[in-house]
Amino acid sequence: MKSLSIPVFTWNTLSQEEKSTLLTRSEEDIREVQDSVRSIIEDVKQRGDEAIREYTARFDKAEFPHKPLQVTEDEIDEAVRTLDPKIARALDYAMENVTRFHQAQVPAAMDMHQIRPGIWAGERATPIDSVGLYIPRGRGSFPSMLYMLAIPAKLAGVPNISIVTPPGPDGTVDPACLYAARSIGVSTVYRVGGAQAIAALAFGTPSIRPCLKVLGPGSMYVTAAKRLLSGTIDPGLPAGPSESILWADASQNTQDDITRICLDLLIEAEHGADSSALLVTDDQTLARRVAETLPALIENTPEPRREFLKKVFSGYGGIILGQNEAQAADIINQFAPEHLSIQTREPVDSVALIKNAGEILLGPFAPFSAANYAIGANAVLPTGGYAKTWSAVSVRDFIKYNSIIQMTRRGYQDLRDHVITLADYEGFPSHSRALKDRPEA
Ligand SMILES: NC(=O)c1ccc[n+]([C@@H]2O[C@H](COP(=O)([O-])OP(=O)(O)OC[C@H]3O[C@@H](n4cnc5c(N)ncnc54)[C@H](O)[C@@H]3O)[C@@H](O)[C@H]2O)c1
Ligand SMILES: N[C@H](CO)Cc1c[nH]c[nH+]1
Ligand SMILES: [Zn+2]
């Protein structure tokens, strides 16, 4: 069998089209499924639960006519009781770190400032009334995503939290997800995934309550559905297929360095064929050594992940060779990766050159997986170049701010004439008259 050859792209010799393919990555796949996703959404809108059960049978190979779409309390009790204690302990450890990290994001209930004597203005944070959290389960189960979403939602004070996640073939929901949901205090869990789940959360069905906002990562079907429904729900950040860049330089020159870099490159690549994983470097020797070492590690990965890795490293993955440090940083900023690991001589200096990345891990001791699960920072991150304008999920995603204003007589008198002048200039007589002819209070 022909062995895999890892592509090495020399940035300065690539055509605009080749650069654009690397920079676009799976965004193209998402566009391609939009039409089929649109018809799923329309069908769920028309036929509700019946359509959901049909799509679940077709895409998840799960039929459970005797189970309700909502997971019962008894099922959650059972999952909590029977979950392997080692998994429960690992979940508890990770959830504690995630809580510590997000606790610091909880805003003050009200924050008022005196703009001028007698003019007070500020903001009050109020939670969004209802949110849906999408927990993927196509190519792996994701209890980690459940706690990354539900912990900040709870800390924000969201009163109605619904979780959707695809069922296994027997209709059951991943037990570690149920354990995490119970620990966090969320009891509304629906066994439905894919585009049909997003549509159900947007429109509501007899079994599923509608939500104002839907957050959570997912496959291209989920990402496409959120985009198509952006007029009905707030779809939050675009969190599609996982992607990573590892930035390393000539300081990484021992065999251990090469092995570590290769292992790290495989982390996010194993999510699926639609993932992307790139080494960006300005060192030709490092590029060559990584290209030589990766294939054996890929061969040594169990299926189905091996096949995903092979597809990634003949698709949206590989090695990009830049001319120097500045060009390496420029490529990364153009790509705006979801995850970035900096393993250069001085990561703290290198990070100063980076503007766009969902998450930035400095040095050799912070592999992507550590942040995926347990450091505490949120691992639901913008993909597809959206890290240029979006951030990781946080408590802020679950609240909105009301501007609150209070003025004394003195404050009012201070600004009155200026407002009249500006309203007259803009041609709004009623805006102006309300102050000019205002009876003294
Ligand atoms: N950006 C982030 O923060 C982040 C975090 C975790 C995971 N991810 C990504 O989320 C994704 C999870 O994907 P997944 O597949 O594991 O789970 P998923 O739950 O998102 O997708 C599986 C669902 O897709 C639907 N589906 C499957 N084939 C279909 C078809 N042909 N037509 C219509 N619908 C279909 C099914 O309903 C199924 O339930 C991965 O790409 C992973 O990289 C991203
Ligand atoms: N890499 C994902 C975010 O892109 C998070 C994750 C959870 N489990 C494994 N990985
Ligand atoms: Zn991951």
Automatic annotation (TrEMBL):
Family (UniProt): Belongs to the histidinol dehydrogenase family.
Keyword set includes Oxidoreductase: yes
UniProt cofactor(s): Zn(2+)
Keywords, alphabetical: Metal-binding, Oxidoreductase, Zinc
Protein name: Histidinol dehydrogenase
Organism annotation: Spirochaeta lutea
MF terms (GO), sorted A to Z: histidinol dehydrogenase activity; metal ion binding; NAD binding
GO cellular component, one term: cytosol
A biological process from GO: L-histidine biosynthetic process
